[in-house]
Fold this protein.
Amino acid sequence: MPSTPHEVLIVALREQPGLLGALVSRLTGVQLPRSLKPADATLRFVKPADLRLDLVLQGGRRRWVLVELQRSVDPAKRRRWPLAASLLFSQTGALGDVIIITARRAVARWAERVACVRTLLGTTLQLKPVVLHLGAAESKALLDERRPELALFAAWAMQHRHGPAARAVVERAFELTERLPRALRRAQQRAILSVLSERMLELLREASMNPDKIPETPAARKLRLFLEAQGRKKGRAEGRAEGEAKGRAEGRQEALITLLRARGLAPSPDDEARIRGCADAAKLDRWIARAATATTVREALGTRTQGARARPRPPGRSRPTPAPRS
């Protein structure tokens, strides 16, 4: 099942296809067509069979780019990548690009050579994709003040890292994101936090709570303020939910007391205290349903138990033994 960092970046590339062109241009110097748009990423064959890809971009009828985010080695890609490229080649009549993006060096080396198959006689089937390894050097190159949208890729490359260098990249990525237009800024800030590991997030939260213990850079300050704002927003949301739940319970409590009084079943101070002390909505609903037909408050609140039990027999009397059947 795809991970959160995988899905976050795929969504970003699908919604902003220009991000891929900016990434490729920054790392390779090659310009992709600006006309590339998302296409159906499920390739279908004449026989009922589907090949699901991460992302397919098409520009016009002939130009296409296949994008795969690769977190780990997957032997099945030896068949799937050449098959997908061959099918797109057949459908469009032109060879496009297969771009593999990974944050791991070992996976990058594997991806460069995995799609090569050779028989004993020498027949060779080979696909050599464009592999973009987002390592430490590449991440620094992506922290470009002129292209703040690339900061997301730099942060994405830190998804498996937790050290001071990785934290510095994340903080710088967050700082550069502030340069984006307001409409894009919040989305990229949330995306950056979504691709980080729980360990990295915990380190950032700890640092944000103790800014005096560690020298705070402007980038760290921006990240701290955002985390604090997110924490306040979460607290307000939880507070609203708690307040709404309390309000609903109080409404049920008042309805129950009003119903009992309307039926001439005035609750005692102890009964009323018990009702007002109950915050369980389901229990209050049961009490309200009973109160509609109950003859006493104790019955409505489920405290009358004698009727459900057999009356105790006087001492010395035993139950008669039934006569045997003939």
